[in-house]
Every structure is written in C-alpha cells, then in structure tokens.
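Example 3.
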Amino acid sequence: MVDRVEKEARERHAVAVHRLGVRLGALSGVEPELFAAAFTLVRQGLLQDAVLDLRRSEAVWSCPECASAIPAGGVLRCPACGVPAKLVSGDEILLEQIEMEVP
Amino acid sequence: MCDSCGCGDPNLVSVEVHDKILSVNDRTAGHNREHLAGGGVFAVNLMGSPGAGKTAVLEATARGLAGKRRLGVIAGDLETERDADRLRAVGVPAAAITTGSACHLDAEMVHKALHQFPWRELDYLFVENVGNLVCPAVYDLGQAVNVVALSVTEGEDKPLKYPVMFRKADLVLLTKTDLLPYLDVKVEAIEEALARTMPRPQLLKLSARTGEGVAEWLAWLEERRAALSPAARAQAPNQGHQHA
C-alpha cells in the first residue's frame, strides 16, 4: 500500500500525503486497530504525517436469484429460492483515497 | 478554489483509487495458479488450527493414493521440518517452508518453494499452511481449493468464532472422529455453525487413525480435480516462460 501511495504522490509531485482512505470489510480478516498500528511502523518520507481514515463495511449477503437480503449471522441460504447466499460486500481490503498536498 | 477536487484549498488534491492492498500477493497467486492448473496439478491449501490433524490427514491421503496418484506437499511451519519429515517417511516428496515468526504462508513463499520442488511431476500439490485459523484465510496462494481441518476436540462454535476462515473453505474435514464417543461434541451443532458461515457448507467426517471417511475424502478430491482439469488445461499458459 505504501508503495502505491508513494507512486501516486511522486507522479503528482506531492510534497506530503495528508490522509489515506482505507476500507476494511468485516470479513476481510484484517483488524482495523492492528492495521493502524502496523501503519505507524511504515510511515515515513512523504507519508510521515499521513492520517489513516479507516472505513468499515459490514458483511452483506444476498440471494443471487431473487436479490433479497440474507442477514449475516443466519443460515447463508435464501429461504425462498433455496440457493446459497452471495457475499455482496464485506471482504474488502481496499485503498480508496489518497489526499495529498501539491506545490 | 482547487481545480482538481474543488476542496477550496489550492494545495490539496484528493485522488480516488480502488486498489486492493493485497494486489501484489494476488498477482503472484494468480501466477502460481496458472502454472499449477495449467500443468494439470490440483493444488489444495490445507488450513486449520495447530494440532487439528493436518499432517495426519496428508499421511492418510498419501497411503490412500499410493500407486494411483502422485502427490507432493509443501508444509509451512514457524520452525522445524518435522511435518515434511513425517510426509517423506510415507514416501511423499515434501518441502518445508519455515516462516520464522510469520503466522501464515503467502503466494511469494509458495512460489519460491515451487522453484525448488518437482511440482510438474505431480497430480496433487498439498500446501499445508501454518497452523492458525486466522491469517492464512487472507492470503491466496494460487490453490484450486481451500480445505479446513477442524478436529472434534476444538469445539462446536469454531466456525462462528472464525468466520473469515470458514467462509473461504470449499470443504471442512472434521478430523479425529474416532474420539467422538468420548466427547460431548455434537456433529449437528458443527453443521449448524457451518451453515451460518459457509454459503455452500460441505463437511466430511474423517479419522486418520481408523480410516473412517478417508475414501470419501479421496473421492471428493478426485471429483474436484476431474472438474477442474480440462478447463484449466485448455487455458494453459506458456509453460516455458522465464521466472525472475
């Protein structure tokens, strides 16, 4: 992630990166607090003062046939159609936004 | 007024990206997958807690497939080659990846191990992941299927406690079933927990000690391998390309 941010910053001749928007899904397997702690260890150079804007998304399941929502935590099968639920969102580990200061 | 994003500060630019943070791992995993599937090797990422019986399952698999299919194992552990040694003892080519303090394997570790391993001669490659129900689920290795070994002594609620791992599983092997008569564990409760974490729950009961369920496990492997092979071979990449 740091490599990608530095590349974007260099391309725009940025003098500093202020904020990074990162989305972590509930089923991503990544804990926001640990992610933030790890980020402080790799923060240097252009990213030295960058703030992490961590965005959480909950697991959203739906029926691939009738598109009705299937609540997370319940049986992952559509009660009407009988087909396995599909994960719509909630497994993301995404860098969404980079806010940087340019000359 | 900023002409990039209209934020009012002339010096700030906001860039919208949609970059998977694990994209480097995913690319290497895709590379591993192309080579393995393209070469007709069915790769299984075998995960589970420490002591779930992953190595015992592989020993039973090796005995069951002996003389019929060629299998190899890449075993990940923090330290020692003990698992690889056990598998070599039953005639399976095995390599160890000692991860030091890393709690999971990633695609690059597997890629490096494959370079030292005669994987082209195999029908099945089993990657025995580091014993851990958390992190291995996050890293794609290039496998065809994910299999999670869950031993009967681990409790009925493990799937609910570790949903990330079980959601990714194509099959759960309930191991050490020879111990069931001595425990209060109900298999139905495990099935109920899996229905809440796996969209397509699949559970096979197996005891490496008594051999119960080994035939069904081998049949599952053969079925999945047969389903994958023709399509994968049709998309086989140029096997002669050079690696870094």
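The longest strand of chain A covers residues 16-25. The helical segments of chain A are 2-11, 32-42.
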